[in-house]
Q: What sequence folds into this?
């Protein structure tokens, strides 16, 4: 009977397969992850945190043309919004690089370039949403302002308002139910319009001002506090994100609710795994990118040529061939997957869904419809990854993003694969993905860390 059971593939939880010691380690690991999540609510803040972690582990800045040797631990900070960590292994660089690639941007509300206006006794910011949000989720909830203002002389002002208990927060008003009969008959798309996602920021007029006195009060505060004028918003990157901190979920504290799990829940185990994988003979790389939520375009996105530029420089410095290095490299596109939610079971196919608590999730293909927009990893790569994870005792599962034709989505995997690098998606399952507060399992987070570390060290 026991032999017959081995013929079947069954998902089991980390609690069943890994035991109490691993679970205890997962809960402990999650404590520092929560600190990272709260400190890194934008891609700029995530890079700052990653630089701090890298330097504490002995990594130093890299510049193109620097000589390289086995054991070197380096990072390349791309414009403060995208970072590469890499460690040079002892084996030939022509054997390839072990790469994990995650993104550190998350859906949010960005300020427009001319954002401030006054109307009917109130002052507002105008916004443009970033990434795939459900607009109604951002109404009537406390929001914090994060970002930078770069003045004409090049000086940079970093802003974070709304995170401390003593700070004011920002807010988007919602329509009271007593007057919402008309909206109740509309679709969600019709009822919640992007141009109405305006941020309430003031209502007190400035003494002595006759026109736009409330706006002038806000501008006076910004100038007196930060030295910012209205024109300075033209060269600013300011975003609204949820103001609350990450918290444990459940009486058993088995889950974490927070903003930005997608995809910092994969970025954090990626960077901690490369830092902890010093024993690897392979050259290893952790790549954390921006702009995934908007298509991976731009100089800090995955479609930038920077990834090939850095691989070329590494190959050249170590006497390798860049094409050979790419062909022999392997990449885990460490992005989140959609956890099966029994409250919305009609859009999932449970046999092929990610289940909470069942470990890190491997997704052979993403895309939509007939696998549109995916790289679809090869069977050979899947088999190699299976062996890697199983030999390391990692608890893992396979998944897809919902039922066929129910929707879909993509990750950075296809852009890595386009460089002739074998790539597959692997990450942590998320409930309420793209909501202001998402939920993940602590044991799934820890199995991602164990999976990435095993990947860096295997064979």
A:
């Amino acid at each position: 009977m026991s032999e017959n059971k081995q013929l079947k593939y069954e998902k089991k939880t980390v609690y069943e397969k890994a035991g109490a010691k691993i679970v205890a380690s997962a809960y402990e690991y999650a404590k520092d992850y929560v600190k990272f999540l709260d400190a890194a609510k934008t891609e700029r803040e995530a890079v700052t945190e990653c630089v701090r972690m890298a330097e504490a582990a002995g990594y130093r800045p890299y510049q193109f043309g620097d000589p390289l040797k086995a054991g070197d631990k380096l990072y390349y900070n791309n414009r403060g919004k995208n970072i590469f960590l890499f460690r040079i292994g002892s084996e030939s660089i022509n054997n390839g690089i072990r790469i994990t690639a995650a993104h550190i941007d998350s859906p949010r509300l960005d300020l427009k370039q001319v954002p401030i206006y006054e109307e009917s006794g109130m002052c507002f910011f105008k916004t443009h949403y970033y990434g795939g949000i459900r607009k109604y989720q951002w109404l009537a909830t406390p929001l914090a302002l994060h970002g930078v203002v770069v003045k004409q002389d090049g000086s940079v002002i970093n802003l974070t308002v709304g995170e401390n208990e003593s700070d004011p927060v920002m807010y988007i008003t919602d329509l009271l139910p007593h007057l919402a009969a008309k909206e109740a008959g509309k679709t969600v798309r019709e009822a919640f319009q992007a141009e109405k996602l305006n941020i309430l920021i003031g209502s007190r007029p400035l003494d002595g001002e006759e026109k736009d006195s409330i706006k002038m009060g806000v501008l006076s505060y910004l100038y007196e506090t930060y030295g910012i004028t209205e024109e300075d918003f033209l060269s600013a990157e300011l975003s609204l994100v949820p103001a609350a901190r990450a918290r444990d979920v459940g009486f058993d504290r088995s889950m974490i609710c927070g903003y930005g799990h997608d995809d910092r829940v994969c970025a954090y185990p990626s960077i901690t795994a490369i830092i902890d994988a010093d024993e690897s003979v392979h050259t290893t790389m952790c790549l954390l990118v921006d702009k995934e939520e908007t298509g991976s375009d731009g100089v800090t996105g995955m479609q930038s040529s920077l990834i090939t530029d850095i691989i070329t420089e590494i190959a050249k410095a170590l006497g390798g061939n860049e094409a050979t290095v790419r062909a022999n490299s392997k990449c885990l596109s460490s992005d989140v997957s959609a956890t099966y939610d029994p409250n919305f079971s009609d859009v999932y196919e449970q046999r092929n869904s990610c289940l909470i608590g069942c470990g890190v999730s491997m997704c052979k293909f993403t895309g939509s419809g007939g696998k549109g927009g995916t790289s679809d990893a090869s069977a050979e790569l899947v088999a190699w990854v299976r062996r890697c994870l199983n030999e390391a005792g990692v608890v893992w599962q396979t998944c897809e993003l919902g039922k066929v034709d129910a929707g879909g989505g993509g990750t950075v995997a296809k852009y890595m694969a386009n460089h002739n690098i074998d790539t597959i998606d692997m990450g942590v399952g998320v409930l309420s993905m793209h909501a202001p507060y998402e939920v993940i399992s602590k044991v799934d987070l820890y199995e991602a860390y164990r999976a990435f570390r095993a990947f860096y060290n295997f064979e």
